[in-house]
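Minimal example, chain plus SAJ.
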Amino acid sequence: MCKVCVIGLGYIGLPTALILAASDVDVVGIDYNPELVSILNSGKTTFKEDGLDELFQNARDKGISFGTKYIPAKIYIVAVPTPYNEQTKKIDPSYICSAISDILAVCQKDTIIVIESTISPGTIDRYVRPIFHDSKYTLGEDIHIAHAPERIIPGKMITELIYNSRTIGSDNGAIGEQIKSVYSTFCKGEIVLTNIRTAEMTKVVENTFRDINIAFANELAKICRQGGMDVNEIIRIANMHPRVNILQPGPGVGGHCISVDPWFLVGDYPSLSLLIHEARKVNDSMPAYVLKRVNAIMAETGQADISRVGFYGITYKEDVDDIRESPTLQLNEIMKNHLGAYVRFYDPMLKNAVIDGQIMDFDTFLASTDLVVIMVAHKHIKENMDKLSEKIVLDTRNICRLPGCYHL
Ligand code: SAJ
């Protein structure tokens, strides 16, 4: 029987499985997607992340294996997606629930199941515990459940896996200690033991805090534009105060975490989450606001041809290849619905086209655009900023220092 079985080999499960294996833990990685498993078994990783390829090699040398079939293990780490229902805003626990049912079909007594996926507070009580009612195992006696939410940030995942502190929520301190000893094989941060509901809520609170802070910055950007003030300079100076730390305005909040998790609180506590809900609305309004800025700049500079507008950056943030909930894709939807416009897109992190109008070569993209909108602050554009010197530039990320450049 293997020691740890990681279920779900996406952005969180894969690095977690690899770092455990590299730390001499006996690990098997499981994913329901046979194509993904076959890529991993052929010796390739499935997304770009600093240090991931080296870690992958190391884990393979130590004997990690990947498969599609659930097998018996002492500990399962579940890292499957947890989307929200667009209508109710509540969590959709279906991936979590089917992973637990599949584990119960193969596991033996004394197994520990650790959910790493972000879940809304109460998910384990509401959706996971009832699964055990129809099982031959008694939860808390034969099988134990815990929640150890991941906290790593794409772009710095491997460093954060090692140095971030972690939270482990369990029903039973001794089980919490056992899980802690597994994470301690690689984690140098503090590992805090608490109960399940606290661990669930803490993770959602962390991402909600960041969403509200970014919404504040985005709202300031709109106020400062209207009032003829420079939002970036104002935030820079305000942040010199020892108790102020405002994040950066931008074209919207993407990714599968910050733009999703606050909805869990809005879905479950609609009358109590007014600020959280407004912050979500402010951040979701930003792609349309960028389009408004594009129209204003076109009018001001006498640019009439929208097809000569190019959007630089399609991923949800800098230096990752993840396009989930990307502001650029949201902006494209708005343009398709309201303008039917055909504009250009370019992203150096994407090897395949994901959107109509995407140009795969930077020089061709530049040749076909007069107005470039910087949507993502990839290292690539910072290093090639001089190539935009003849263009009209709208910089939504405050990275361009070319004279005459426009901001949010
Ligand atoms: N963004 C801004 N302004 C900022 C910072 C970010 O507009 O000042 C935008 C980004 O461009 C991006 C979005 O917000 O579109 C989210 O990016 P992010 O870098 O803030 O966060 P994520 O989603 O990549 O990762 C977050 C992290 N959570 C926190 O920092 C509290 C990470 O630690 C979590 O592990 C991750 O969510 C997760 O998986 O939950």
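The chain has a mean pLDDT of 96. Residues 228-407 form a domain with the Rossmann fold fold (CATH 3.40.50.720).
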